[in-house]
Amino acid sequence: MGRFDARDVVAVSSSCWWFIAALSSCLPCASVASDPRVAWSVTTPDSVYATGVLSPDGDLIYIGSMGNKVYALHTSNGAVKWSYTTEDGVGTKGVLTKDGNTFYVQSGDYADSSHMLALDTSTGSLKWKIELDGPFGNYPVLSSDEAHLFWVFYDLHCISTVDGSEVWRANLSLSVYTSDVASPNGDTLYVGSLDGKLYAVASSDGSTLWNHTYGADDVTVRTGVLSSNGGTLYFGTSDQFVYAIDPATATTKWKFAARDSCEEEPLLSKDESTLFIACNDYFYALNTANGAKLWQHTGAGRMEGNGALSSDGNTIFIGSANHQIYALDTTAHGTVRWNFTTGGDNDATGLLSQDGTLLFFGSGDGNIYALHTGNLSWLDIGLIAGGGALLVAGVVLLVVLVTKKSGNNNNNNRDPLMSSPRL
Question: Which partner from 4, 35, 273, 421 sits 20 to 30 angstroms from 199, CA to CA?
């Protein structure tokens, strides 16, 4: 067998470039992803606490950053379609019209300045902007006819979606700050407060229908989630309780005693038989019929957001202050299917792609991640995390050796008088 010459690698790789290129095209992540869980990531100037919103066709995600930016990103690869520079940070999710043409989002600081923006989603240009009273609060809510936008800070505000002009303002309490939730018919808005009260307000004029006390005057009542028929409202409080009430009468159906403060927005399963809620270091799954605990997940640090549930309901994705994003198995008492480490707190709520294969998540480390949601096989990990590059190198070496062997066989069959001596 002839001697191995490194120059043969260049010669062979040049002659077989088409084969290597074809093989490499099957491994698009091998050279760009250091973690096989990451499909893509985008780095922003500051922390990302906002939850993204998908376009109707699922091709774009609209998301804000505390770095004074709103982004429209392609969900397939993270490429920026457009970005809009705000006067201050964007720390909450926005809301999109049903036709996907307008994105409403609030920007602000933690002191005394905030704005509501209406952005054209085709170009990222500003349709209108208004200055709001006080710092940014929580995410805005669209009325069912999309004629009005409701937002909360101290008061409950109703503004026109045409130009942002004020329609009415409900002076409920100096302690109202959580986002409101609307009844299925849109006639009633429910909003929590920092003084132990929950309010029901008429969406037509802001008049108070009822208010009920669910704790002391220093207790936070977090606006919750309604059942699809509007018959039950679920919410948590800072004094470690989760409630299910009849929103028509404010009558308590059941009350669950948690082991920590429950100030995150809850989430219902698809069949509405289970309520998921984060209570600081505890993440609970509760039976919606009676409030009984089905399971709890602990030991992950402060859990954030209300989670994103897979279409089959078997996995819920939740962020944590310990720099982790967890995929919990809802069919196995919340055991961890997988976890992903970021460089900061994960205060946002994740968002799933329309086909459920990607999880979009903003992080305190300034990145927006698209994570593969499934269980990765050893082949996935090998190819994406560097095995792909080794495979290409191995194929090149194999081709070199085969070519050399073939060359030697050809030389053995040649007329020795016509062969040149090897020096």
Answer: 273
For residues 307 and 350, is the Cβ–Cβ distance under 8 A?
Answer: yes
Assign 130 a pLDDT band (cuts: 50, 70, 90): very high
Residue 39 one-letter amino acid:
A
- Report, as an integer, the average pLDDT of 235-264: 96
Measure the CA–CA gap between 213 and 225, rounded to whole angstroms.
18
Which pLDDT band holds residue 30 (cuts at 50, 70, 90)?
very low
Whose CA is closest to 117, among 147, 87, 78?
A: 87
Exposed/middle/buried for residue 410 (C-beta within 10 Å: 0-12, 13-18, 19+): exposed
Cα–Cα distance measured from residue 78 to residue 47, given in angstroms and rounded to the nearest whole number: 17
DSSP string, 221-274: B---EE-TTSS-EEEEETTTEEEEEETTTTEEEEEEE-SS---SPPEE-TTSSE
Q: Is the pTM of this model over 0.70?
A: yes
Backbone angles phi, psi at 384, to 5 degrees: -80, -35
CA–CA gap between residue 198 and residue 365 (Å, rounded): 35
**φ, ψ for residue 40, nearest 5 deg:** -165, 165
